Amino acid sequence: MKSYIILSVFLLFGWNMLFAQIPSTQWVLEQKNVAWEPRDSQGEVVYNGYMWILGGWYDSYSPPPRDVWKSKDGKNWELVSEQAPWEHSDLPMSLVFKDKMWMMGGWYNGRLEGRSASNRVWSSKNGKNWSLVTEKAGWSARCAAATVSFKGKMWILGGTSAYYYGGKDSLLNDVWYSEDGKNWTLATAKAAWSPRAFHQAVVFNDRIYVMGGGNYDPEYFGFNDVWSSSDGIHWREEVSNASWHERIWFSSIVFRDCIWVIGGWSGNPYKNWGDIWYSQNGKEWRELKTDGPTWKERHEHSAFVFQDKLWIAGGMTPPLVNDVWSLILSEKW
């Protein structure tokens, strides 16, 4: 009888202890308040062994910040430049291409007089010294476009020429590419997906995927469709209504052989989103459920894939925040 009781206790507690040691899927708060001032709509890249934050937005009635920060652990951030030469750092297009960081387009001065979009292209190898590659790219001045590096070229997809007060007429669905950042070629003036801004694009399975986005001012509308292309010209609709709610101002990345959609904002219902979705084909989507504490719902945050982890930083909850979180995936991944 005693041996039966001992065996039962072991089976109950021993196995529980064993499984308790297997990491669950959870978010880790790396730092509640990092060195850079709370913000959203910043540029972000992973480059040369660091996560980088570039400019962003503080409010609609002051010029956007022009600072540059980097971190190799998410906790400690180093100020690389306090005043970079680019001015249009609200909703810019940022990426890494040919061993350089690039900042393109963007918005300046919020709702103030003199507000404008840009089609300037800047590059840097260290974040401190920036070169103006071109004053006027082939594509029209814009912000909130999607950008990817694909088949040895940089690509710009859609966006808006007038962040505030622009409406539908300011939205774009053209696609451009460049091998050097200076000379740009129009792939298509009107892609199959409808004109939009605040969307996302990723490269996955040797195709460009465009998803979500819409318009904010003066009238909100959002999408939750997903499109893909092997050449930037011919597009196929993967799904017209994905499982995640339509939204703008979200993040999307490729991580562990999946496309991920993270957070964002919608006007119907009027709310921030704190969900995270993933897909292996762009058609079927599953929501990731995590254990323990998580980040507050937000939009226009940064997302990184760094050191085999998924990271998010900053954004508008409200208020603006400057926290940094990383995701630990369970062993099933």
UniProtKB/TrEMBL annotation:
The keyword Repeat applies. Pfam families: Kelch_KLHDC2_KLHL20_DRC7 (PF24681). Keywords: Kelch repeat, Repeat. InterPro entries: Gal_Oxase/kelch_b-propeller, Kelch-typ_b-propeller, LZTR1/Attractin. This is Galactose oxidase.
